[in-house]
Every structure is written in C-alpha cells, then in structure tokens.
Amino acid sequence: MKDLSGFTLLPGRLDRTAQEALMGEVLTAARAAPFHRQVTPGGKPMSVEMTGLGPLSWITDAGGYRYEPTHPLTGEPWPSMPAILRDLWVELADVAVPADACLVNLYREGARMGLHRDEDEADFRFPVLSVSLGDTAIFRIGGLKRTDPTRSVRLASGDVCLLAGQARLAFHGVDRIVSGSSRLVPGGGRINLTLRRARPA
Ligand code: SIN
Ligand code: FE2
C-alpha cells in the first residue's frame, strides 16, 4: 500500500525465516549494546527501550536529541548493521547513499511512543525505513502539523514501511502494542528497527 503522502506499507515483507534471522542478529547485538531506557531532554524516561546498529544511532539525554557513534552506557561503537537491513535499504529506499543509522526500539507490554517527527537527520530527501518484529503495533500517522488528522495502521511482525516524500516529516507514534500477538520476541513484546541516513550524503 502506497498513499499519496509517501507512506508505503509492505505487509509481510519479511517472511518468518527472515524475521527469525533478524531477531537473532538483534539479540546478539543487544548483548554488546544493551537495550536501555533513555531520558528525554526534559528529564522524562521513555517507556520504550532502545539500542542501535550501524555507524550511528539516535540518542536522547539532558543534552538533547542527536546521533552518536557510540552506545551511551558502554562507550563502545554500535554493533554493525546486519546485511539483511542494508539490503532492504538498497532495495526499497530508492536513494544512492547507504543508511548510516539504525535505531532499535523494544516495546515491552505497556510501552508506547508519543506523536513526533523524525527530524534529527541532515537531509529529509532520504526516507525512514521501518521494520516490525514481534507483537503487532497500533501505529498512528498524521500530517506535517501535530494537529492534522491522523489514522491508525496495524504493523505486524515482518511488515516494512517507508516514510518518504511528504510523509518523511509526518507526525507519527505508537499508541500501544497488542501484547501476546506474536511469540517472536523472547520475553514478549515488539521490536522496531528504523533505518535512516543521518549524515549528509
Ligand atoms: C519510531 O517512530 O521511532 C518508531 C516507530 C515504530 O515503532 O513503529
Ligand atoms: Fe519516529
């Protein structure tokens, strides 16, 4: 499904075998770069746990929102970006530069993400590519203004979506996850991976 705004949903783009392989890569990476709850610049802990893959990942702390080359707790570089993600970017992003950042979000039961725009990247001509694993998310997407009408989209395990064109700067968030709808994530919940080009081309 591609709508006029540039939001594309590819349901079941990753089959079960690919989902399990990617899940395994994320678990291995998370042993070196643990998921943790970050704090907003205003001092509020997020309900989503995060880590990252690739040259850069997104972080938030009292110093603000930004991309960093190292994990804030370990001080080590982020684990490398799995080939399956690099390949998805090459196939779907429709741009000549590789992704240089992958934020990995872990939603345990009750976690959510408020409406926001992804706007810490250098160049919005590059899309955001999102991969969902595990429990279904009730995702919400609206327009360029926070007050624009929104619609709700279910993102199930294996679904891939792209925020490109106008939708690149659309407000979006996760209202909730449907706890127990998948058994892919050990301990339950949902993992979302978002690939981005954070630096200029
Ligand atoms: C995000 O906007 O960073 C996450 C979106 C999602 O979890 O599907
Ligand atoms: Fe986002």
Description:
The chain has 201 residues and is mostly beta strands. The chain has one domain: Alpha-ketoglutarate-dependent dioxygenase AlkB-like (Jelly Rolls, Sandwich). It is 13% helix and 36% strand. It has two helices and 13 strands. Strands 1-11-8-13-6-3-2 form a seven-stranded antiparallel β-sheet, covered by helices on one side. A four-stranded antiparallel β-sheet has the order 7-12-9-10, with no helix packed on it. The radius of gyration is 15 Å and the shape is globular. The two termini are 28 Å apart. The site of succinic acid has 10 residues, from strand 9, strand 12 and strand 13.
Output the keywords.
Jelly Rolls; mainly beta; binds fe (ii) ion; 7-stranded antiparallel sheet; 201 residues; 4-stranded antiparallel sheet; globular
**Main beta sheet:** 7 strands, antiparallel
Hey, roughly how much beta strand do the residues contain? 35-45%
| Bound compounds | succinic acid, fe (ii) ion
Number of strands: 13
User: Order of helices and strands, N to C?
Assistant: EHEEEEHEEEEEEEE
Number of domains: 1
**Name given to the CATH architecture:** Sandwich
What would you call the shape?
globular
CATH class: Mainly Beta
